[in-house]
């Protein structure tokens, strides 16, 4: 398989989405309004991970582009839980892509303790061979959810998906602690935002 050719449109999509989402963040800053977006990261799934996921889910190679929905992945990290839903609403109102699926792992936390809001979109991208519509996944989460997910992801990698029970139990406790941190911060959100406005004005 010519992976370079297959992944080129995904690289383009990831770059375009990064520019657009960073643009949204900058517009909030120009208007001196609280930005619901703290930072953005993005990646194209490495070939090794694509092949591992395909094997695990028994996806034939000719169905990879339709069945693996996160080859292009963008992550939006927010300060507060409310911000996640502001970002979701803003993404819903955009005209440059179509949302085909939404998964709210905040209201419906995963068994692992994972929390995040996922959107699967169809994004039209111009290539030198014409227009191509590719799938991309946007993950929207708070800083606390991101901290937890990053650490859990590393442990999953280390233990090849079989995290020992004791560590799993600690991860569950950590997930609850992260959730409480988000809840507590939400309660003093107005105070924090006011303080940050004063700070930025200086
Ligand atoms: P990577 O290495 O991040 O790319 P599903 O069949 O719906 O359960 P699907 O289709 O993979 O699974 O979608 P889902 O559940 O929305 O997960 C897609 C991505 O979300 C994952 O990609 C992770 O990035 C993240 N994710 C989902 N569940 C967890 C979790 O329990 N812990 C962590 N840390 N991340 C999670 P990949 O391809 O698994 O991994």
Written overview of the protein:
By secondary structure, the protein is an alpha+beta fold. The protein has one domain (3-201): Beta Polymerase, domain 2. The protein contains 7 helices and 5 strands; from the N terminus they run αβααβαβββααα. The chain has helices at residues 3-30, 47-56, 64-67, 81-92, 143-158, 165-187, 189-201; strands spanning 39-44, 72-78, 98-104, 117-127, 130-142. It has a 5-stranded mixed beta sheet with strand order 1-2-5-4-3. The protein is flat and about 55 Å long. It starts with a helix and ends with a helix. The mean pLDDT is 94. The site of ligand 0O2 has 12 residues, from helix 2 and helix 5. It is an enzyme of class 2 (transferase).
Order of helices and strands: HEHHEHEEEHHH
- Helix/strand-derived category reads alpha+beta
Ranges where pLDDT stays below 50 over 5 or more residues in a row are: none
CATH superfamily: Beta Polymerase, domain 2
Provide the list of bound ligands, each named once. ligand 0O2
Termini distance?
Answer: 55 Å
**CATH topology assignment:** Beta Polymerase, domain 2
Count up the domains: 1
Strand content: 15-25%
| Oligomeric state as shown | single chain
Instruction: Count the beta strands.
Output: 5
Per DSSP, the total helix count is 7
Largest sheet: 5 strands, mixed
**Rg (CA only):** 18 Å
Shape: flat
Helix content: 40-55%
- Output the CATH class name: Alpha Beta
Lateral arrangement of strands in the main beta sheet: 1-2-5-4-3
Give the name of the CATH architecture: 2-Layer Sandwich
């Amino acid at each position: 398989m010519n992976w370079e050719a297959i992944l080129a449109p995904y690289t383009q999509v990831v770059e375009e989405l990064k520019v657009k989402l960073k643009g949204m963040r900058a517009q909030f800053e120009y208007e001196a309004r609280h930005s619901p977006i703290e930072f953005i990261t993005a990646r194209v799934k490495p070939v090794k991970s694509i092949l591992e996921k395909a094997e695990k889910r028994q996806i034939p190679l000719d169905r990879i582009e339709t069945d693996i929905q996160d080859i292009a992945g963008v992550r939006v990290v927010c300060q507060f839980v409310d911000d996640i839903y502001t970002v979701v609403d803003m993404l819903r109102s955009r005209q440059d892509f179509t949302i085909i699926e939404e998964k709210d792992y905040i209201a419906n936390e995963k068994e692992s303790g994972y929390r995040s809001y996922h959107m699967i979109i169809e994004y039209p991208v111009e290539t030198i061979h014409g227009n191509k519509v590719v799938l991309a996944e946007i993950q929207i989460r708070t800083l606390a959810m991101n901290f937890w997910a990053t650490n859990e992801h590393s442990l999953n990698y280390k233990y090849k998906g079989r995290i020992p029970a004791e560590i799993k139990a600690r991860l569950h406790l950590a997930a609850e602690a992260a959730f409480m941190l988000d809840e507590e911060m939400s309660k003093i959100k107005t105070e924090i935002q006011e303080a940050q406005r004063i700070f930025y004005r200086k």
